[in-house]
Amino acid sequence: MMAAVVFSPSSLVLLNLILALMMFGVSLSLRLEDFKRVILSPIAPIAGLFAQFLLLPLMTCLLTWALNIDPELALGMILVASCPGGSFSNIMTWLARGNVAVSVSMTAVSSLAATVLTPLNFAFYGWLNPHTREYLTQITIEPSSILILVLLVLAVPLVLGMVTGRKLPDLVVRIQKPLRIVSLLVLMGFVAIAFSSNVALFIERFHSFFWLVVAHNLLALSLGYGIGRILKLPIADRRAVTLEVGIQNSGLGLVILFTFFPEAGGMMLITAFWGVWHLVSGLTLSQTWARIPYE
Question: Are 84 and 113 in contact (CB under 8 A)?
């Protein structure tokens, strides 16, 4: 087992609040129509959700199994793959001139679906990989406890945000953009502080987790783009699906880890660095696409 990451209980409370605040900020602009849109125009959102909650966890499990990746690092990858889309995929889709409606629909549905699918996928694929199965039993996973946590940090803020957005639309116009920026800066600052408290572990394991995160994120983006090409989705829809699948809610992964698996240093390194890297790759891709006209 790798060395544990240094982390205080008070920091865990702060991390939970940050994630809930980010989810609240994202949901301010959500409406019931965003959920209805999946029913009325289901192909792109359902394709993205299929890639996000089935293909990505499955491929992650199979690859970590085939490559015999260290159990802690492999479980970190499986956990990230089990998380829903990240809260900044909507902004990146807008920057990429993608279909923001598709992105918002996927964010809304995936955040609710994650309350069940995130703990289920993590437990199932962690057990399916024989290299991680023994380690998973050692850390004693409790899917019901994870379910309650995900409900509190995702579902409850999402509902509160939607209600606030409906009741106080003028307030939303004023605070939504600043709230997203502040949330991102606070989260990045939090990750930076966490890394600064664990510099030795970060440097020691950098060679092992850096390329895993880069390759894993590339896999996620490729799955989103690939399913869009296979289904011949419009370019704007394809861009939305790609970014939604490639931008994972690593903040949720960190909350789960620090709450239930505080000794899993390798899992935390993977999850924390993913939170940094997917912003780099997502912004790079969105800025590239923004300069490419539709065919």
Answer: yes
In angstroms, the CA 103 to CA 238 distance is: 10
Contacts of residue 190, Cβ cutoff 8 Å, sequence gap at least 6: 11, 14, 15, 18
Contact 99, 239 (CB under 8 A): yes
**Per-state percent for the chain, helix, strand, coil, to nearest 5:** 80, 0, 15
The whole-model pTM stands at: 0.79
Residue 230 burial by CB count (10 A; 0-12/13-18/19+): exposed, middle or buried?
exposed
Residue among 121, 165, 113 nearest 143 (CA): 121
Do the Cβ atoms of 291 and 231 come closer than 8 Å? no
Q: Could you read off the pLDDT of 104-148 as tens digits, one per residue?
A: 778 778 878 888 888 889 989 999 999 988 877 766 666 667 777
Rounded CA-CA distance 12/14 in Å is: 5
SS3 string, 93-152, reads HHHCCCCHHHHHHHHHHHHHHHHHHHHHHHHHHHHHCHHHHHHHHHCCCCHHHHHHHHHH
